[in-house]
Amino acid sequence: MRARGDMLLGSMYGGLALTAAGTAAVHALAYPLGGKFHVTHGVANAMLLPHVMAFNLDSCAERLKRAALVCGVAQQDDSNEIAANKLIEQIRLWTQVLDIPQNLREFGVAEEHLADMAVAASKVTRLMTNNPKTLSLDDIQQLYRCLLP
Predict the structure, then answer these.
(1) For a Cys staple, 80 with which of 61, 100, 104, 113, CB 3.0–4.6 Å?
(2) CB-CB neighbours of 44 under 10 Å
(3) Domain segments of the chain: what residues?
(4) What parts of the sequence cross the membrane (predicted)?
């Protein structure tokens, strides 16, 4: 019973954090992966996160530096860009350590699916408008392409 209570509390805290922080392009790009290819939302987000962060870097390097400092992966005297890149690299490492897939082909995604996926993701405007940087359909396809080595 204690474990169930702890899971419930953790779930609530996660929901509160997402509500307070807002979500953006990472989540929008994750939806087509879940809907068509049955990639769980958490896995899709983990796969996409470092790539979308790198795309957004020039629009939110200061915010990413603050996150890097909180995570203990950067130093105060690092530039915003260096700290942000350290955070992005740390997230890439965490996804590898946690055995998060790094290749969308494992789920049946192929190059010919990217255009439709990009259109679907772009229609999640409630999330796309929250993104620090505007994404074109080409940008979205390129982000998916990062996961098709």
Answers:
(1) 61
(2) 24
(3) 24-145
(4) none
pTM comes to: 0.88
Distances (CA, A) of 63 to 38, 45, 143: 32, 19, 21
- Both tokens of 145, joined, read 């392409």
For 125-149, b/e burial (b = at least 16 CB within 10 A) is eebbeebbeebeeeebbebbebbee
- 34 burial level (CB within 10 Å; 0-12, 13-18, 19+): middle
- List all residues 6 or more positions away from 149 whose beta carbon is below 8 Å from its beta carbon: 102, 103
Fold of 24-145: Dehydroquinate synthase-like, alpha domain (1.20.1090)
Exposed e or buried b per residue across 86-96, where buried means at least 16 C-beta atoms within 10 angstroms of its C-beta: bbbebbbeebe
> In a structure prediction context, what are the per-residue pLDDT tens digits for the chain, which is 149 residues long?
888 888 877 777 666 655 545 689 999 999 999 999 999 999 999 999 999 999 999 999 999 999 999 999 999 999 999 999 999 999 999 999 999 999 999 999 999 999 999 999 999 999 999 999 999 999 999 999 999 98
